[in-house]
Amino acid sequence: MLSFIMALVAGAVRLSTPFLFVSLGETITEKSGRINLGLEGILVFGALSGFGASYLSGSALIGVVAAGIGGALLGAIHGWLCGRPGTSSIAVGIAMMVFGLGISFYLGKPLIQPKAPQLPDIDLGWWATSPAVRAALRINLLFVLGLLMAPFLRWAFRSTRYGLIVRMAGENAQAARAAGYSVECVRLLATMAGGALGGIGGSFLSLYYPGAWTEGLSSGQGLMAVALVIFARWDPMRCLWASLIFGAAGSLGVALQSIGISQGFHLFNAAPAMLTLIIMTASSSTSGNSGRPRELTVFS
Amino acid sequence: MELRQLVSRIARQVGALLFGLLLFLIFVAVQGRNPLAVLSDLAFGAFGNSFSWQNTLVRTAPLLLTALCTIVPAQAGIVIIGNEGALLMGGLGAVLGSMAFGFLPPAAGIPVILIAGSLLGAIWISLSGILRQARGVDPTISSLLLHYVGLAIFLFLVEGPLRDPATLNKPSSWSIPEALRIGRLGSSDVHVGLVLGLIACLGMWVLLKYSAWGFGVRIAGGNPRTAAMMGLPRNSPVIAVCAIGGACAGLAGAVEVSAIHYNANASLASGYGFSGILVAFAARQNPLAAIPVSLLLGGLHAAGGILQRRHGLSDASINVLQGLMFLAILMADGWGASTRRTAKG
Amino acid sequence: MDFAIETVSLGMRFGDFIALEDVSIRFRPGTVHALLGENGAGKSTLVKCLIGYQKPSSGQFIVLNKEADFASPRQAHEAGLGMVYQHFTLAEQMTVAENFLLVRDPIPLVVDWPKEKQRLSEFMNAMPFKLDIDTPVSQLSAGEKQKLEILKELFFERRILILDEPTSVLTPQEADEVLGLLRKMATETGLLVILITHKFREVSGWCDMVSVLRKGRHVGTVAVAESDNQRLAAMMVGDNEDAGQSAKATPNSGHTSDKTAGLSITDLILDTDRGRRLDKLNLTLSGGEILGIAGISGNGQRELVEILSGIHAHYQGAIRISGAVFNGSRKQLRVLGLNIIPELPLQNSCVGRMSLSHNLAFRDYDLPPLSSKAGFLMLGRIEAAALDKIAEYGIRSPGPAAPIEKLSGGNIQRAVLARELRTDTKVLVLYNPCFGLDFGASAFVHAKIREARARGAAVLLISEDLDEVIGLSDRLCVISSGRIALEGDPKTLTTAEIGLHMAGHQVS
């Protein structure tokens, strides 16, 4: 039982990292009044860029930076297209998903076999004698970064110029324009920032766990992050807790395998998607309205 | 709509698709391939000779149906992108139907299999509709999440309880008995699924444009407040369009299983569902326009093989092309809107 | 310095449309200067040029002795101009304090909240109306939000303050409070207040000067002391014959009373995510009468109309139409003869991109003769029926196949009337039917309302235009905080009584 819980906790921390980064990024985007359904494409493109850059440069950290740049690039395309009159951000999101996946799979063909330098761990369990506990307490660098980023973003939204401007664009675009800010510019930058974080979240998949580039790397994590942000009511700290829950759901299959239950592997892979559906169903449309940026309409 | 407006709209869509193609050719040129050769091979691989045409038409058939999975709900204002999931469920339904009713003669058995697939597909997308009406869950997100869930269920069943033990290398379900496999048109490779797809598109066009029910659906899609004020039912139009769309995608899956693969396995998830979304948007959610657009995309899918053999471009390159075309269509939408705006002054 | 602002032949055109032409007005500091005019006269356009929202196509203006060439509202603010808009420019999810900070130029890179809050508290204490700076704006009433808007501008010590219909969401008493403060500040500090209004009461009560605009041109500027309402009305409207007809009380003579028609609402309660919007609302209405409901927007009118429009499925209380329990189904609406003219008809009861002729068929497209028995549309007959209605109601359009959103507001309203006013309409509900329409179109709508009453229909007229409600109703109610607060004869009730009840005060 203990080893199951250890495996679950370790898995939760591990698998929560991509959710954490993507959801924090999407929080920024949605607070500015825009929704990005193309995050799945950005996530995978980030995984590819990170892997490729790490492979070519020999440094995983360069890979992470490249993933961020790649994500920001796709975010810029998304933001630019959405900024044009008459475009539906849902359609743009779907297109970016298709394009992002397509270009990632295309460019990634030669990278399926090779190995690239991985991200380092922080070994918090150095004192433990049991290898299971030690393994469980290996925390990856990106998770720590995300852990710091969540409270930072919360503070930034309240007490910094750019945080307040982003919120204003998402609350009352007309007022933001009247105050002299270009709402389109704010949303474009917010979408790029969201894309950058999403790309970094993707790099986690290829540079840490599972630690290789394949075409089955993501099974909807990018999309689930959008639902996660709604569930977290656009609050960065709640994104952190929600990501851990989603990470736990995702690691259910592997944790069960560690105690010998290996049937229904496919079904457990779908656990995060099921969890997302259940959460979306359970949270009624009325209570979800507190904290929703006024300018954000999913049916835009 | 006036003829002049219609022509200019069509021209804009075609122009956008061509622009996407142009971007793709630039993309291959950057990769060091000869763009003109790629272009001519694409055209040849799609429509060059009788063999290409058959290949194309075989790939057009499922697109006609999966596109409807987005087009029909769109009339009610619902954007569904879980087409691939419904397709997989349809394939599953075909296998289940054939396992239960495989003893029937073809005249009864084939329809049963196809209906079983359509039914499962209909149920799958209806879930999105029901969740939206009952709990306000966004159907775009829920339909895609259901795809992932459906894929998991599909793989679990096909590689587990429904697996044919004889298929060790590539786990697959039990096969459809030979008598119940869908026939071909004449002596070609093209199967009857193409005809089903054409009938479905035409049928949907007539239903949506000329029936009173379709009119009501369009009011609901155009302005839900108005629909409520006119006393139109709140839930049934939404669930009905989801069921119809899902049935079409499910039928596509059943047809693919029964005409191409003969059993259900992982290769059923080859992206026809997602391509159907692109067809729907490029056709501006019009079932009639979906016919030529499906043909075009079917041709591109068919030509993918040539690109791989002659130019070393992997199969993912067709996905890149589709993505570029999709983005080009959206750019054209935005451009159209802004020129209309300046004209109004 | 004589003038705070002087416009010199200011002009603004959008493509072929001329919004302003050759407007030259002088505004003195230390005055409250009204801009009067009908909808579409150009008041908002003029003010948008002054505040830097758009650049004038021709002419120029001089602010505080310097020629003004603003590229953005930010530059206008730097020159000392401030504006309070009609639609709130507040961020609802943010607190009062955060909203104040948002207007700072520039917003500090890192905000020192304790210091900022202290500054704000000191400022608030000096003001005649106060707000709690930590409350989220979404929890403020409409009146408080408007006051916040004004306070925001005063906080930044503007020399010129422009207000666009600021009192439309305030009770008469709150309006007096606000305008009184502005008048005081103008006299004491030399502030120039430019007030866009269409209410004569405000012009005569609080303003020093008034400039009248009509169809984009400046008709004249007079001192309030030297003018009267008749003269101002004449300047505003010109030679429009329909002007006199709109909101005069007409005797309720010779109408038939249809005993089967009627609307009765008992203890209606509606809870939404914005709280309890209808709180035991009761009203009864019989055929052949117009019941007017007056009130400030936001007191439950919209929700009442939404319930009758079938938008809210869950509510408590009983609604009976001509005796039958209301269920909102299409069949019932037809049988009971319930028709609705909502506010903002394009957004609420049309589908913009569908054609005019199709929109006209929304009520009966699924019945013969417009549909066949098999359920297919008879498109030819739909068009023919549309052409009849277009002729009868004088709907001007690019053609019956044109998307209805291309029609002007007045013509869309005519189309909705054409569709909703059937000979067998038994209960007619109207909500702000003349919002945004010019005098001619309003007069047309009012005439149709009287016709419906004459035919025996029960007419419920909900309007935020007090003059309209008083002029048309047989009986008058005031809605406040989700319930009916007052009921009486419009000819005997005083504006003071009505105003008090609109604000929610009981008359003891």
What would your notes on this structure say?
The complex is a heterotrimer of chains A (300), B (345) and C (508). Chain A is mainly α and 300 residues long. Chain A has one domain: ABC transporter involved in vitamin B12 uptake, BtuC, CATH 1.10.3470. Chain A is 70% helix and 2% strand. A two-stranded antiparallel ribbon of chain A has the order 1-2. The radius of gyration of chain A is 19 Å and the shape is globular. Helices cover 75% and strands 0% of the residues of chain B. Chain B has helices at residues 3-30, 35-47, 50-75, 83-101, 106-135, 139-159, 193-210, 212-222, 224-229, 236-261, 272-282, 290-311, 316-344. The longest helix of chain B has 30 residues, at 106-135. Chain C folds into 3 domains: 5-239, P-loop containing nucleotide triphosphate hydrolases (Rossmann fold, 3-Layer(aba) Sandwich), CATH 3.40.50.300; 247-337 and 422-508, Rossmann fold; 354-418, no CATH class. Chain C is built from 17 helices and 21 strands. In chain C, strand 15 and strand 16 (324-325) form a beta hairpin. In chain C, helix 13 packs across helix 14. At the A-B interface, helix 4, helix 10, helix 13 and helix 14 of A face helix 6, helix 11 and helix 13 of B.
Task: List strands and helices in order, with pairings.
The complex is a heterotrimer of chains A (about 300), B (about 350) and C (about 500).
Chain A: H1 2-31, H2 39-57, H3 60-83, H4 89-108, E1 121-123, H5 131-136, E2 138-140, H6 141-159, H7 161-171, H8 173-178, H9 183-207, H10 221-231, H11 236-250, H12 252-258, H13 265-269, H14 271-282
Antiparallel strand pairs in A: 1-2
Helix pairs in contact in A: 1-6, 1-9, 1-10, 1-11, 1-12, 2-3, 2-4, 2-9, 2-10, 3-4, 3-9, 6-7, 6-11, 7-9, 10-11, 10-14, 11-14
Chain B: H1 3-30, H2 35-47, H3 50-75, H4 83-101, H5 106-135, H6 139-159, H7 193-210, H8 212-222, H9 224-229, H10 236-261, H11 272-282, H12 290-311, H13 316-344
Chain C: E1 5-14, E2 17-23, E3 26-27, E4 32-36, H1 43-50, E5 58-63, E6 66-68, H2 73-78, E7 81-84, H3 96-102, H4 113-126, H5 142-155, E8 160-164, H6 172-189, E9 192-197, H7 200-206, E10 209-214, E11 217-223, H8 229-237, E12 262-272, E13 275-286, E14 289-294, H9 301-308, E15 316-321, E16 324-325, H10 330-336, E17 338-341, H11 345-349, H12 356-360, H13 379-393, H14 409-420, E18 427-431, H15 439-454, E19 458-463, H16 466-472, E20 475-480, E21 483-488, H17 495-503
Parallel strand pairs in C: 4-9, 4-10, 7-8, 8-9, 14-19, 14-20, 17-18, 18-19
Antiparallel strand pairs in C: 1-2, 1-3, 1-5, 5-6, 10-11, 12-13, 12-15, 15-16, 20-21
